[in-house]
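hi! just following up on the protien thing from before. the input was this:
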Amino acid sequence: MRDAFPHPYTLADADAWLDRAESVRPETNFAIAVRDEAVGGIGLTLHSDVHRYSAEIGYWLGEAFWGRGITTAAVTALTEYAFSSLDLRRLEAGIYSWNPASMRVLEKSGYRREGVMRHSVVKDGQLIDQVLYAATRDDALSLGEAVA
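and the predicted 3d structure came back as:
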């Protein structure tokens, strides 16, 4: 989680996020739901200028729902959406080095590890590495996904 993400997360935080997300076009932020209950979130941060065909993917899931494949399904679905509906060519994620579960989610969703960005993030007062993962539209096509 980025420092901008409220912690603890309150109902007022959720309402404010919904107000912002509903007005963004194209749609890039979504709830992760289980049986009509929001249990997490997933979204894209679109890049601009020379990076306009790229975006960062980010996600979170309530701890009570970890280990069920929910995040992998959400990442896979958003990746397919991004490549088919948003004309993107590359999605990337920087994962904190102490989060192997998130790395595994990306790997199961077809992302490749591209490298380590050493000492690139300050989280909880510690300078840490990020592991860079990415998927390209060409990767998705080679996996046989339906990409328009």
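The chain has four helices and six strands.
The chain has one domain: 11-142.
cheers
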